[in-house]
Amino acid sequence: xxxxxxxxxxxxxFHGHVCPGIVLGTRLAIAGLRELGMDPHENxxxxxxxxxxxxCGADAVQAITGCSLGHRNLKHIDYGKFAATxxxxxxxxxVRVAVQEKNRAQHDQLxxxxxxxxxxxxxxxxxxxxxxxxxSVPEDDIPGFPREKATCSVCGEQVMDNRHIVVDGKxxxxxxxxxxxxxxxxx
Length: 187
What we know:
It is a single chain. The chain is an alpha+beta fold. The protein folds into two domains: about 5-140, CATH 3.30.1330.130; about 145-175, Wheat Germ Agglutinin (Isolectin 2), domain 1 (2-Layer Sandwich), CATH 3.30.60. The protein contains six helices and nine strands; from the N terminus they run ααβαβββααβββββα. The strands form three sheets. The protein has a five-stranded mixed beta sheet, with helices on one face. It has a two-stranded antiparallel sheet with strand order 6-7. A two-stranded antiparallel sheet has the order 8-9. β8 (about 165) and β9 form a beta hairpin. α1 (about 5-15) packs across α2, α1 (about 5-15) packs across α3 and α2 (about 20-35) packs parallel to α5 (about 110-120). The longest helix has 17 residues, at about 20-35. The chain is globular.
């Protein structure tokens, strides 16, 4: 079994089914790790991955790299692009890998099983754009114990890792100080 097949199967098992996103995420993760000189079969403690999408391929990247939100070495930056930046915090080296299908219109006319096979076999240069990039990982984004904790003066909830704001001298969480993605309903 090839390394691609082994890692693809790991991603497929983690995600629960096969789709083009799992194929692309597998290829993206393999390329990113290779460019940093990291082995996908090892725990790469210095790896942080910034994902630009929250679709199927994100599961492949998580399964192959071992990075996760809970470990604080997987970050989601919602750009809606099938791309990820792989950062070695030990060396500062970073690479951004983006899916750039040059013949996507042709793929849309194929049977889904044929698309999955094709995406797994197409030369990397025809499907991925790989760029060396510079990224400054904020100190508060580094994995490990929280460096700072604050308590919101409005809701009383704890805010970790310097994610709070200060307005008129009061410590606030972003929900109370800026805007919230939810509305509390009266009981």
